[in-house]
Amino acid sequence: MKNEMIWTKLWFAHQKRKWEERIKMAKVASKLGHQAYASKQARIWSQFLEHAKTEFGSIDGVGR
């Protein structure tokens, strides 16, 4: 079960980074709609990560 908690936090952190990169790409391309959507997604994944850190704790140091 500990591994699943670690993997979950890693997945949430990965998704957050992926959407943050998409924000940057949308800014460069001047696509405001894409930027807004990517910002919302990054926020959602960040909230998932924060919730997981609260629930699972820092058992592995991931997502501090």
Q: Main β-sheet, in a few words? A: none
Query: How confident is the prediction overall: mean pLDDT?
Result: 92
**What Rg, in angstroms, do the CA atoms define?**
13 Å
The proportion of strand residues reads: under 5%
Number of helices: 2
SSE class = mainly alpha
Distance between the termini: 20 Å
Helix and strand element order: HH
**Beta strands, count:** 0
Percent range of helical residues: over 70%
Shape: elongated
What does this structure look like?
This protein has 64 residues and is mainly alpha-helical. The protein has a domain of 34 residues. 81% of the residues lie in helices and 0% in strands. The protein is built from two helices and no strands. Helix 1 packs antiparallel against helix 2. The chain is elongated and about 45 Å long. 11% of the residues are buried.
